[in-house]
Amino acid sequence: MEGNGIENLARAVGERRRQLNLTLDQVKTAGGPSDVTTGKIEKAQIPEPSARTLRRLDVALRWTDGSAARVLTGGTPVPVEDVPPPGGVDADADSVTLSLAIVGDLSDLAKRYERLASDHHGDPLAAELGRVNERFDLLVDRVMRTWLTVQLERRMTPTEAGAAAGSPPGDPVVEMLLGDYLDRTPRPPTAQDADELRYLRWLTGRADDVDPPTQQRYLARWRARQETAG
After folding, report:
1. Are 94 and 43 contained in the same domain?
2. Burial letters for 4-38: b for 16+ Cβ neighbours within 10 Å, e otherwise?
């Protein structure tokens, strides 16, 4: 697509909305951004749409996951009707593989549950809702972190000194989810969760609190992953 990313997105969103015969308010009702936000996007007035906004555009405009993000980098959106519906889940004897769509749905569901628990603050079940929400959010966090870690392990290149140089530009969907994930203020509940998060940040070159022994351990872990994948 010609033009810059924002102009491409403006054109693609407007064309798709008219193709589906949706009003701005209907886009919102279908799970998209607010009518004001979508209107500004169609006018190229939002220079850096958030990851959440891009995902909501995919949902409301019936595009495959990551389509809006790909448009920003010069790609083309893919309508869901143009591809067969994915199974989303695969498994072997002792593991389960989740598609990006399933990971994204889990993340969105955790956020919706968090809002529900917040809305019922003070109700008799509020405390129990809060405890369930914390546990659910932790499980989703671990799934998301594991998925992102595997994506980065496949692409990052350590420097000769052993520190992570950061992953090269790749799938815009991965980059979008990674930025969205690392922009949070995580509170790892266990030492293992904290170490896993530090390793993820190391893979992106964002970890500034890694001592030499830990750095060597992370490098050995990355090399072991390459040997297993190869």
Report:
1. no
2. ebbebbbbbbbebbeeeebebeebbeeebbeeebb
